[in-house]
Amino acid sequence: MKKLITLAMIVILVLVTAPAVFADAARGQGVYMNFCAPCHANGIAGAPRVGDKPAWSERSAKDADVVISNAINGYQGKSGFMPAKGGNSALTDEEVSAAVMYMLEQSR
Asked: Exposed, middle or buried by CB within 10 Å (0-12, 13-18, 19+), for 88?
């Protein structure tokens, strides 16, 4: 009986959180498509192209919070430059975070 209750609680937790996870993924993809893709789809200014595993491997090895912080605050790297929030100060930190997570997932 205890195992059944535990299983039921896990199922409920998954059902409750799944829409939020999918919403974040969709939002991240939308932000990427609208604001990040001009550079990250074409490698402009040294931006790693989404899906290019070798280009993202060093970033993927870091804590995601570091990569997100660099995207929010800007970053000057060896091979390029990332302006704060991709040069769009109207983006929220949450939108940038969602886009970074989307790009990381697409590049693993």
From this structure: middle
